[in-house]
Amino acid sequence: MKKYLYYSILVAILVSGSMSAMAAKKKMSDRRKYSQDIHLVSFWGGAGYSGLVNNYSKSDNLGFTYDLTSGTYKPQFLGGGGGMIGVGYELHHKKFIFSVGPEFRVLSSRDNFHMLDANGEKFSMIDYTHPEYSSMVQHFDIQRYHETNVVGQIMLPIMFGANFEKFYFLAGGKVGYSIFGHYHQRAKITSSVTDEMAVDDWYEIYSHFLQKEQLGKHPLYQQVDGIKPTFKGKNNFGLDATVSAEFGVNINEFMSATWQKENMKKKYPLHMRAAAFIDYGIPNMYAMSLAKANQTNTDMLTFVPGVDDGGYAVEKFFTTSVHKSQIARGAGAFNARVNSLLVGVKFTALLQLNKPKIPNPRLLFWVTDAFTDNQPTKSIARVAVHQQGRKRPQQKAMKRDGKLAPRLYRGMYKFSATAPGYLDSDTIQFDHQQDLKDTIHFALIPVPKNVFYIHDANTEALIPASITLISHESEDKRSGSTTAEQTSLEMSLKYGNTYDVVVSAPGYHSDTLALSDLYDQNVNYYLRPIIRVRHKLILKHMYFATDKTDILPMSEDDILTLYNFLKDNPKIRVLITGHTDSQGSEEHNQKLSEGRSESLKNEMIKRGIAADRMETDGKGELEPIDTNATDAGRQNNRRVEVTVLNEEEAEEDIF
Question: Cα 263–264–270 angle (5° rounding)?
Answer without folding.
Answer: 55
